[in-house]
Design brief:
By secondary structure, the chain is of the alpha+beta class. Helices cover 31% and strands 44% of the residues. It has a seven-stranded antiparallel β-sheet with strand order 1-7-6-5-4-3-2. A hairpin with a 2-residue loop joins strand 3 and strand 4. The protein is globular and about 45 Å long. The C terminus is likely disordered.
Amino acid sequence: MDATSDSKEIAASVDACFQAVIDVESYPRWASDVRDVQVIERDEVGRPLEVAFRTGAFGRSASYSLRYDYSDAPHSIRWSQVAGDITSRMDGRYIFAEGANGATEVTYELAAELVVPLPSFVKRRAEVKIIRTALDDLAERVSSHATDKMADGAHG
């Protein structure tokens, strides 16, 4: 995949990171740029298979649908764009690798093309921003979700 990628160590298990990523319905509550999510189709075990997103970034709204591939779950999740209003391609992958002390090394790869071409350096800068924001948001979500579960356990 001709993609931009970045990685981040997240203080959570591979499964916790994987579960946060596939809980697409919760994205509008924690993913900075996601405004709305609609699951169009699920696989035989209930995971989102095709999902429509509406996002807002750089002062612009975008809508697109992605189709997910779980063939290497929970170690990676791939997606490819089915449809998009301003993007002609948005293919990507999360890779989850066990790190030290129960942490997970999460790598996000993204290959995106806009309907209107951009110079490669502008496109790369936008991809890097999307990836870093996604990794930071995921780390915060997994961390706050673990804290919520510990608090629930202390009160339950």
